[in-house]
Fold:
Amino acid sequence: MYIFQSRIENPEKLEMTLTGRKVLADAIEKMIIDSVKTGKLYQNLIVGPRGSGKTHLLRVLYNRFTDNPEVMNHYEIAYMVEDEVGLASFVDFMNRVFAALQRWDRDKERLQSLERELDLLKSSPAQNWNEMACSILLRFLEKKRLLILIENLNQVFHDLRREGQAKLRDFIQTNGNVSFIATSQALFHDLRREDMPFMNFFSITHLKNLTLEETVRLMMALAKAEGYPELEEYLGTDEARDKIRAIHDFTRGNHRLVVLFFDFLRAEYKSELSGSFLKSIDKLKPYYESLLKSLSPMQQKIIQYLSLSRTPQSGNSISYNCFIEQRSLSKQLSELQKLGYINAFKRGRERYYEVTEPLMRFYYEIGESQEAIIPVFIDFLVIFYRYLARKDLFRETDIRYPKGPFTGSADPDKPDISEDIGIEYENYRKRPDGLRADIENKTDDEAKCQDLDSLIGHEIKVGNYPQVLIHIRENLVYLKNEECRILFSHSLATVLEEIPVGIVDDYIVQLTGVLQEDEDPAGIYGVFTLAVLSLLRLSHRIETIRFIRIRDIFNKLFVERQEAHLLLKYLDVGIRYLKLNEKDAIFDLSKEERNLFGQVIPLHLDETGDMHP
Structure:
């Protein structure tokens, strides 16, 4: 397995993959270079959650500084380890600074001199430690300044407590020769309390997650850096972009998670996404275990409950199911929100909560459930994004075709537009075998499906529904092609919209019988789900009774089929939300399911997380 370790990777590779952080790295580098001339000291704190690229950024800055003679002539750099532990006092902190200076310095004579002074420090009385440590550091620096690169400053300051922080701030203020470039997973209380030594000390930058474009660029940079030209070429295709978009949805642009998914995409980029996705989730187990270990048992219990619930839960529900009293629950929920683990949505007087990262929920769900919902959803995502890209299949127009004989409409509520399509249909009717021959002579599956879609449209125009079933059966052989599945979803949506309401039940039964001949039931239900989303997008022109009858027959036919989970859920929520004005129905969908729904049905998210049409 490919593991990206920022502290040991070569500098060229780190620079090449510095996606989404280069502007910040350049700005901090310029500050330090400018400080050589101006004498000004800069104190930078970079705030971002685990896996957001903080270690990568610090290592790039360290490489740049040590390669710059001007900087090195004016600074000694203490590049401390990622997780400094055992810092119970100021002298502990100073001792770790000395260790960092020894770790990266290559001047043997200076190091030997420092080692002798540290031996004296260790053998001196405890009451002299602080003063001696400060004197040793100042002698080592001589006329240079000290630049401290340190991670997890929140934990360091927590361990130092107020007394240790006060001594450190006093040393910095007295000598005026120390700069920090520090990172933290969150903006912690010690920097905001007036009674704490480092209030308003740092210039703070909050890291943003990678955008979709940045995620694509990072994966392409990794492919280039690792020497995979075929993969780099593949990542530039529409198919790869759809997979990366799905990965971006779940990783929320977290650097570490994107890199991990790149590993499996690299190995299996020609396969379905779900297989590599599930392997990635399995490899993420240590990552999420470490996240959860940092939480209290009560907070862990809340995260587990929300993860397994899939949909947002009220405070009362959390309290009841987690055996947590309300007065204790409010504090825990507030803390989890500040840490970025959960989101809150206000609905009326009640607040609902859900896990922020879908992957954390998947981590729990896969471990405790044998259901196949997740892999079905993952592979559907890739098709869904390709579907979104096919604007020509959104069927924006409001043309409705007549039913019954070609010479007139069988439905008095719909216009007779036979004159408009007469020539087109007459030409088709005169040479159906010729059209079929045209299809067979084509070598491109997508072109064949496009023609079959047109044939289905022609048969619908005259209400020849038995022939529609024949064309649908002909389409099945092409459904391994992703574009064909998308075209097929258009055909199904057309059929479901245009078939007379009176025969919709029987026809769907016949249609399902034909579709079950396919070897890939999950793929078929994915196509059905796209068709349903297409219908929901045009819900303003489709009768409520039609939707309800389609829903009822689908529930009867597919309730036992796990592959139909998305189909049934979207149809039920869509009808309630769009046709029956039940706005809370949207929260019967998980976060990622709402995201897809909102990309088809125009929704707006306000600052509280509420969605509105």
